[in-house]
Each structure stands twice: as C-alpha cells, then as structure tokens.
C-alpha cells in the first residue's frame, strides 16, 4: 500500500500504478489531498463548491485517462498534484469562457432579492417583474452601452472583435463593458436607500 514515508518519486510511481489498477483508495486519497486547493481556487474565481466538484471530477478523469494511456509520467515529486491542479485550472478557465457561463452570468442581473412584501407573489410573476426591470434598465442605458452589451452578451462577439470594429484596443472595450454593466446594475437593482 501507499506510504507517505517512502521517497516521493517512488510514492508517485505507486500512485500511478494504483490508478492503473483502479484502486478506489488511491482515488479517495487524491481527493482528500487535492480537492481543497482546487475548490479554493474555483471559489476565488467566481465559482462555488458544486462547480469545484464537477471540475475536480473532470480533472480526475483526465488524470486517469492519461495514466491508462501512458501519456502521463511523474517527472517530479509533486507531478500528480501539479497535473490535477493544472487540468482543473484549465477546465475552469474554459468554463468561464464558455457560452454556458456567459449565459448564467448575463441573466443573473434578472435574479435580484425579493422584498418581504413580494413573498405572496408566485415565481412566474416575480420572474416577469425582474425581467421587466432588467429590460427597462437596459433601455435607459446610453446607445453605446446598449450596443456593446448586446454584441458581447447576445451576439456572443468577443471583446477583441468588438474592439477591432470600433477602433479601440481590447482593454478599453473591456473597461467600457465593465462600466456599462455597473451602470446597468445600478439602474436595475435599486439601492436600499432608494427603497
């Protein structure tokens, strides 16, 4: 069995052998030793524990496949941990760039807190009310902001493509998008002092 007192290189090779043999205990140990660090990274980067579990599972599958096909070899004492972390980080980055994430984050503005007075209203009415607030706020934005946000969120154009079309650099367009989103949030979500 695996012992953490043996030399690290031998330990890594033992883990690889155990993965090849589908040893459940080694998978549990990899989870215990590596999941907290990966979960922390994902939570710090707009994620949650549920997403972290999904990403970690994908990273474990990638490690398992790489070991089974002998595309992965331990080249240093922390190769497995580094591999899992890198795979998880890359998969999380891919997810953040995906249309699924953009769709979730662009519709999150619609889902604001419901006041105690609205508790008796059914979910459909709440959704329609929040959607109307978001649409009204969007209509109040300046023309430039509406065009920029529409191109990015609805037409799924990259900031780089938008920057080329408007003759600005990508950083300027990113900053402008951020300011437009801040303005939209301010219009759509009334501050407590305004209630």
TrEMBL record:
- Per the record, the domain of life is Bacteria
Q: Which organism is it from?
A: Dokdonia pacifica
Asked whether the keyword Heme is assigned, the reply is no
State the SUPFAM superfamilies in the record.
Sigma2 domain of RNA polymerase sigma factors (SSF88946), Sigma3 and sigma4 domains of RNA polymerase sigma factors (SSF88659)
Q: State the similarity comment.
A: Belongs to the sigma-70 factor family. ECF subfamily.
Domain RNA polymerase sigma-70 region intervals: 30-99
InterPro entries in UniProt = RNA_pol_sigma-70-like (IPR039425), RNA_pol_sigma-70_dom (IPR014284), RNA_pol_sigma70_r2 (IPR007627), RNA_pol_sigma_r2 (IPR013325), RNA_pol_sigma_r3/r4-like (IPR013324), WH-like_DNA-bd_sf (IPR036388)
According to the UniProt entry, where is the signal peptide?
none
Write down the Pfam families for this protein, in alphabetical order: Sigma70_r2
The protein's UniProt keywords, in alphabetical order, are: DNA-binding, Sigma factor, Transcription, Transcription regulation
Question: Which GO terms of the molecular function aspect are on file?
Answer: DNA binding; sigma factor activity
Task: Provide one Gene Ontology biological process annotation.
Answer: DNA-templated transcription initiation
**Name of the featured protein:** RNA polymerase sigma factor, sigma-70 family
